[in-house]
């Protein structure tokens, strides 16, 4: 697939941002107006200063009329007020610019997370959390900076140059103004050219930082294993090696960035030197008044700062384009294509008809199976044989290769329907407790509301009342970091309650009692059967088989298929 151009990427990310930031043009217009006013004052104030100086000299050496003294006071007042207004506009502009950048950043981070949730499961598995987090925030920030640099730094500098040229043409002469214009535009153009003609120094820097982030998050997630194996020193040595590689690569690229800046400094310095010397020459030849000399000097000095800012922004511009492209790359990955088709009620939930599917490393052909209402199914089989893969077909994470899979009377063979999630609930073998309150964890994603008494009763039935007492917790207390210390069994039971509060017609569970002792499991499974009439459960526990209306032995399925294909 051909990579989109920078303009295409920018336009695409702009449309992505607009999905959350509905009216970006309003704030952009306001910032633009403030910048236009500030730029106009930047051109006007040196001209007022010129008039002030020329008028003061006129009053001192020629006449002392009231008119000239009054004009001097007026010009002095105008200059002071202009400076005050200019500074006030700059402060207001900076504040609104911060809001502008914040809004874009927030919108793009939100859309990036939304896109991640919409990605196909196989795509999500390939993404490293640390790299994704870095790319997400860097890209969101870069797009705002990119927009701000182009609209509110580059364009105002050009407008400021044009305004100065017009004032110089009116007061000094067209030829001088044209020289000023040519030198200014050439300096600006060379800054842009140097930046975009030099080699890319940002991709390597981003890749180095992403590698560190990936390592850090991986090791934090593996802290338990590192602790019990006394591997901290080993991991720190590994990390130190990566830090040294990071320092070498970024150091080399920082030097290149400084070199680019020095090139631009040379051009800006030459621009400053030439026009200052040229202005001194004209003043010496009495072709310029004192006010003219101050006007030109002020314009030249006042241009050096925005030109320097612009040079730095242009150097970052290339990195911003790269970061924006990396952000947009995630939107090019495969997303889930859910249908919104509805279905009628039926006494059979799932039906596999002559289906071909992958179970673990095995391709199963001509597979036929039904999950009927009112039954408890227990799936057994050795580790890695494909039991969890089978659940992925039920949950829409994978699609069968051929044949037919239906939910009630709805065909799911090629496209899953979001409506199915209204009927089913899932409990993973890796139970999750999220940040937030305990209430939010219990009613998470449920369409129903529950009173405090009902939630306390659920906690009591699942032997979690002591969790609140021991930690002095209420339903609406923020768990903060406390949830990270919950035991596996506590997390498991919270996950099961969460699934039951969705009031599903079908409950699908992957090793739901793995973190529970046998006694607790024997108490809880009857509660599950009483709440949900249809259950599909993967379990290695032999006692779970006593609750099964039907047992699915995946060892037998694989062996039978292997025998048939021989």
From TrEMBL:
<keyword id="KW-0472">Membrane</keyword>
<dbReference type="InterPro" id="IPR011527">
    <property type="entry name" value="ABC1_TM_dom"/>
</dbReference>
<dbReference type="InterPro" id="IPR003439">
    <property type="entry name" value="ABC_transporter-like_ATP-bd"/>
</dbReference>
<dbReference type="InterPro" id="IPR003593">
    <property type="entry name" value="AAA+_ATPase"/>
</dbReference>
<protein>
    <submittedName>
        <fullName>ABC transporter ATP-binding protein</fullName>
    </submittedName>
</protein>
<feature type="transmembrane region" description="Helical">
    <location>
        <begin position="174"/>
        <end position="196"/>
    </location>
</feature>
<dbReference type="Pfam" id="PF00005">
    <property type="entry name" value="ABC_tran"/>
</dbReference>
<keyword id="KW-0547">Nucleotide-binding</keyword>
<dbReference type="InterPro" id="IPR036640">
    <property type="entry name" value="ABC1_TM_sf"/>
</dbReference>
<keyword id="KW-0067">ATP-binding</keyword>
<feature type="transmembrane region" description="Helical">
    <location>
        <begin position="69"/>
        <end position="86"/>
    </location>
</feature>
<dbReference type="InterPro" id="IPR039421">
    <property type="entry name" value="Type_1_exporter"/>
</dbReference>
<dbReference type="GO" id="GO:0016887">
    <property type="term" value="F:ATP hydrolysis activity"/>
</dbReference>
<keyword id="KW-1133">Transmembrane helix</keyword>
<dbReference type="GO" id="GO:0005886">
    <property type="term" value="C:plasma membrane"/>
</dbReference>
<feature type="transmembrane region" description="Helical">
    <location>
        <begin position="293"/>
        <end position="310"/>
    </location>
</feature>
<dbReference type="GO" id="GO:0005524">
    <property type="term" value="F:ATP binding"/>
</dbReference>
<feature type="transmembrane region" description="Helical">
    <location>
        <begin position="27"/>
        <end position="49"/>
    </location>
</feature>
<feature type="domain" description="ABC transporter">
    <location>
        <begin position="343"/>
        <end position="566"/>
    </location>
</feature>
<dbReference type="InterPro" id="IPR027417">
    <property type="entry name" value="P-loop_NTPase"/>
</dbReference>
<dbReference type="InterPro" id="IPR017871">
    <property type="entry name" value="ABC_transporter-like_CS"/>
</dbReference>
<feature type="transmembrane region" description="Helical">
    <location>
        <begin position="257"/>
        <end position="281"/>
    </location>
</feature>
<keyword id="KW-0812">Transmembrane</keyword>
<feature type="transmembrane region" description="Helical">
    <location>
        <begin position="146"/>
        <end position="168"/>
    </location>
</feature>
<feature type="domain" description="ABC transmembrane type-1">
    <location>
        <begin position="30"/>
        <end position="319"/>
    </location>
</feature>
<dbReference type="GO" id="GO:0140359">
    <property type="term" value="F:ABC-type transporter activity"/>
</dbReference>
